[in-house]
Amino acid sequence: MTSVIQNARVLQDDFLPKEIVHRHEAVNQMSKALEPVLEDDRPQDTFLVGPSGAGKTCIARYTVDQLQEQVLDIKSHYIDCWQHSNRFRVLYKILEGVKTSYDIHRSTPEDEMIARIQSVDSPYLLILDEVDQLDDMEVLRKLYPMPHITMVLIANRREEVLSTLDERLQSRLRSSVTIRFDRYTQAELVSLLDDRITWGLAPDTITTDQVHRIADVAAGNARDAISILRSAARNADHEGASEIRDSDISSAIPAAREELHEQNLKKLNEDQHAVYDILTDEGELPPNEIYDLYADRVSEPKTKRTVRTYLRKLEDYDLVRATGNGPNRTYEARDR
DNA sequence: CCTCCACCGGAACGGAGGGGGA
DNA sequence: TCCCCCTCCGTTCCGGTGGAGG
After folding, report:
1. Per-residue pLDDT tens digits for A195-207
2. Which of A23, A305, A312, A319 fits a 20 to 30 Å CA distance from A203?
3. What is the C-alpha radius of gyration for chain A, rounded to an integer number of angstroms?
4. Residue nearest to nucleotide C17 (CA to C1')
5. Architecture of domain A267-333
C-alpha cells in the first residue's frame, strides 16, 4: 500500500529545510550581522520585518542554526511571543534556552531570573518572534544591556514595535540591522513547494498545474501554501488515492483556512465564544447591540469594557472584522 | 467650526488561585 | 500548615478620537 505522503515531517509548519531555496540575500545580511560572534566579538542585533508567511521565522532559525554549527559554544533559543506574551514566560523561556529553568516557579522573583540570565558566560542569540505581541516591552530593556545577549526581533512592522519603546531603547534598536521581507512571488512559492514535495511526497503524486494553483491561492504566503499542500496530501491519503486529485486541492483550500480558524476558536473562553456566536448569527452589528445580545445570552455577563477587550482579541485572531470609527463602528464575523 | 455622543483602549486596582518556603 | 509572592482576569475610571448635526 503506497501513500502520497512519504515524510510528514517535511510538511509541518515548523520544518526547517537544510537548504534555503530563496532569500539568500536575507541569509547573507543576517549572517553578516551575527558573524562577529565567531570572532568572540559582539554581534549586531537584527530586526526582521515583513508580512506573515514571508519566511522571516524560517530564515532566522536557519541562520542561527548555521552559526551554531560553526561554533559550539553559542547558545540560542527561539521564543514565540504570541504564545509567551508576558514577562515571566519570556524570561522563563530564555532560561530554558540555557538549561537553568529547572527550579523556576511562578513565585521566583524577577530579579533572580534576570541575574541568572546575566550570569550566562557564552554568547546567546535570542530569536523573539512576533515581538509586537509582547505585552510588556520592559523585558527588552532588561535584556538589551547584557553584553552576551544578541536579539533577533521578528515583527510585521518595525515602527509598530519601536513606537512602544522608550526613547533610549528606541534609538539603540534603530541602529540594529533591519532586514525587510516581501511576500514570495508566485515563482518562488512554486519552487519552495517543489522542494517540500520532493522530500515529503512520493514521486509523481502532484502535477505542475496543481502546484501552480496552490501557489496562486496562497498569494505569497508560504505558510498558507504549505498548509494547503499538507491538507491536500492528507486528504488524498485518507481516501486511499495514489495521487493528489484536483478535488483534494479544492477542499484543501477551505480546509487550510478552517484549520487556522479552528485553532483560533479553541483559544476562546465561554464569554468570548458567546460574542463570536452572536456575530456569526446576526451578521454585522454595532458595539452596543453586540453587548445587549451578549448580556441576554449569558447568565453572568461581563462588563462592556471586558467585551471590548474580547472584541479586540477576536480581531487579532482574524475572527472578526471591525469597520468604521466612533459611533459608526460595526463588527462582523469574518467568513473563512 | 463646535459640541455631543458612542466607542476605544490605557491605567490602576483587587480578588482568586497557585506554588514555594518557613 | 500558613504566609507570601506572583500571575491572571475582570472591574472602574477616564482621557482621547472621529462622525453627526447644529
Report:
1. 999 999 999 999 9
2. A23
3. 23
4. A326
5. Orthogonal Bundle (1.10)
